[in-house]
Amino acid sequence: MNTEIRERVKTWTENPYFAEETRREILDIKDPKELEERFCCELDFGTAGIRGILGAGTNRLSIYWIRRVIQGLADVIKEVGGDAPGRGVVIAYDCRRYSPEFAREAALVLAANGIKAYLFDELRPTPELSFAIRHLGTIAGIMITASHNPKEYNGCKVYWEDGGQVPPDKAGEIVAKMKQRDSWEVVVAREEKAR
Q1: Domain of 127: which CATH number?
Q2: Do the Cβ atoms of 159 and 142 come closer than 8 Å?
């Protein structure tokens, strides 16, 4: 295992920001090849979002990736300025594992950034999210889904104010904001304060 991978594993197993359950999942891995696979690289934010196999690690989708992506989106929205944060973001999710939890976490990251969030209370299809963005006049939307990928996957797609997938320039801005942060630590609002 190379030094970079060792450092990533160390960060995820020693930093108290990561939940005990997450740290334990990594520490319980005995196969060095699996550790290498989980920490060899980072997931990519593609044309409209991110998706990956669920689990702990930089090359797995988890609540930490959701927080990081949504913080990048929040930074872009705040940079847009004006009424953008008050217009808010609609959040929908599908029936995949952890979709409701990821959606809730996205809302809490937005709340911590002073951005209004409209969170559907049950699963919804992507076209309904697109409609809600336009109907409510929000600046963006988030769909927690891995689309056509197998059940081991989940993901987070970002939509812009027109109800379509985030345009390439805004996707690039989100990625740039994510890369500016040298830490996985993202502030999350308490649920009672976010209501």
Answers
A1: 3.40.120.10
A2: yes
| Known active-site residue 99 | no
40 within domain boundaries: no
Q: Which two tokens stand for residue 3?
A: 């030094």
Give domain status of residue 9, yes or no.
no
- 109 within a domain of the structure (yes/no): yes
Count of structural domains within the chain: 1
Distance CA 23, CA 104 (A): 22
Identify the CA nearest to 53 among candidates 37, 67, 69: 37
Q: Express each pLDDT in 2-37 by its tens digit.
A: 999 999 999 999 999 999 999 999 999 999 999 999
The per-residue pLDDT for range 67-96, each reduced to its tens digit, is: 999 999 999 999 999 999 999 999 999 999
Task: Count CB neighbours of 55 within 10 A.
Answer: 17
* Residue of 89, 55, 44, 83 lying closest to 70 (CA atoms): 89
Q: Which domain holds residue 82?
A: 60-194
Name residue, tokens 């990928």: 149
In-domain check, residue 79: yes
The answer to whether residues 51 and 65 touch, using CB atoms and an 8 Å cutoff, is: no
State the catalytic residue, choosing from 62, 99, 147, 183: 147
